[in-house]
Amino acid sequence: MGFELKILGANSAKPAYNRNQTSQLLTVQNELFLIDCGEGTQLQLGHYKTKISRIRHIFISHLHGDHFFGLIGLISTMHLQRRTTDLNLYGPPGLGEIITMQLKVSGTVLSYPLHFNEINPQKPSCVFENDKITIQTIPLIHRIPCVGFLFREKPKPHRIIKEKIQKEFSLLDMVALKNGEDIKGENGDIIYKNGDFTLPPKKSRSYAYCSDTRYHEGIVDQIKGVDLLYHEATFLSDREQRATETFHATAQQAALIAKKAEVGKLLIGHYSSRYKDITPFQTEAQQVFENTILAIEGETIYIED
Amino acid sequence: MGFELKILGANSAKPAYNRNQTSQLLTVQNELFLIDCGEGTQLQLGHYKTKISRIRHIFISHLHGDHFFGLIGLISTMHLQRRTTDLNLYGPPGLGEIITMQLKVSGTVLSYPLHFNEINPQKPSCVFENDKITIQTIPLIHRIPCVGFLFREKPKPHRIIKEKIQKEFSLLDMVALKNGEDIKGENGDIIYKNGDFTLPPKKSRSYAYCSDTRYHEGIVDQIKGVDLLYHEATFLSDREQRATETFHATAQQAALIAKKAEVGKLLIGHYSSRYKDITPFQTEAQQVFENTILAIEGETIYIED
């Protein structure tokens, strides 16, 4: 079952050079998670043939417009499509009020239940959990309250080798095998050793989304060893001072975080509109952390298990 | 000096078939007026190479999202561009509050003065006037308070024929000629007849923007004889009942209004997302009013004087 990230927009602040504002679509085992929602996100989703009716959870990192101005439009379009499924929003205080006010003035009573889940931006907390995944907030350091999101697949079951299943296995035996346990007799003796009937569990994959933030080593422990880290890189390092002043990071700083956190792969984006050519971002980051790629609209990053 | 209308978006409700939501840019003698501002309008303005710093007046017909969800993004981008020129918004009650709240949560103190001019949607009133143009509201009938906008050039001066200017003409004589008056001697006798020295004034052009509205003959007197009428046509006439229920109009109804108001040209748009092919809108309207054109993104309509 897939774990893939689609880039819908990767520019910062204002759109430029046909680069849209920030939005990403993460699909984990057929469940869609929309992360941030800059203006025009619904157009991007349409462009990439995503059925927006499948999106049930939307995560907003902070209330700068380039991360959420597209949300009200998306919510409205879901209503016009006569959606009936619940939609869950996760975002900082204030988001619910903004959405509610805009629905009110347009006389809109949504066709579906909309749930606001207010995030405390001060400390890491689990904001979502189902049988496959947990989602934790990552407090970041920005001009206004801002969090990242850490998506982690839960541990997976041992994989039973079908050809080796014995007729006498009960359902409880099968559960035990999936849990990695041996099958024991009434007296507690091992009858069947787990390793003879199963393969080890597939890897539990993880993705950390960190935008927007000043260089902040405080996040390293929390994101340690994730398969994929998205870290904002608004500037190149010749503008490190500007980055610090505006509570943003450089490509080099993003790579330093990736290196310290020993992540599998680094994805950078949130490019300032001052840069037409973004290839220097990759060059700069790769000098510190080789496995760095650029967030490019329309591209999909797959994480294998 | 030009009088031209650029179509930035002409779809209703939700974007579809690469058709954006409603927005138009009217340029009158080098002054830019933005009319409605659906999501993605700033992207469209960028796409068509409009310098958004030149926009000083934005008119919002009503608070349905497809007409204003792009406004906050545009306002923010102007700020990020370090604009210092005043920006004037004209819209129904509630608009100012929505914009103000979003600026507040993002911690944005705009780099330029933003003025909210609240419109009374109940009766026609002049909301803007300078030395070249007046702009009046046109009360429409929609599900929520909604107005159209009537742009009228003021009467223009008589055009003095340079070759015929006499040495003895004073500045006051020139003013008299431009005003269409004869030049008289101290005893009140006509010395120079205006018609010998001037050409008649150029035509004062006019544009009426009417979206969204149910079929409403009450607007006919106000828009009588305008050069160009934009009238919404959300549906074809086989869905007239649906149009009435949703306070929208059909292409045929738009054409009926154009005919009764004896306008020069009819422009229709605000197509429902249910229609992929919009050519039947023109066919239907032309059966009632021949000089009908379709609002198509990126196209410009020029009105000659």
UniProtKB/TrEMBL annotation, chains A, B:
SUPFAM superfamilies with a match to the protein in the record: Metallo-hydrolase/oxidoreductase
Domain of life: Bacteria
Reactions that this protein is recorded to catalyse: Endonucleolytic cleavage of RNA, removing extra 3' nucleotides from tRNA precursor, generating 3' termini of tRNAs. A 3'-hydroxy group is left at the tRNA terminus and a 5'-phosphoryl group is left at the trailer molecule
Cofactor requirement: Zn(2+)
Keyword Acetylation among UniProt keywords: no
Pfam families: Anti-Pycsar_Apyc1 (PF23023)
Record: residues binding Zn(2+) 2: 66-67, 212, 270
Name by which UniProt lists this protein: Ribonuclease Z
Organism whose genome encodes this protein: Agaribacillus aureus
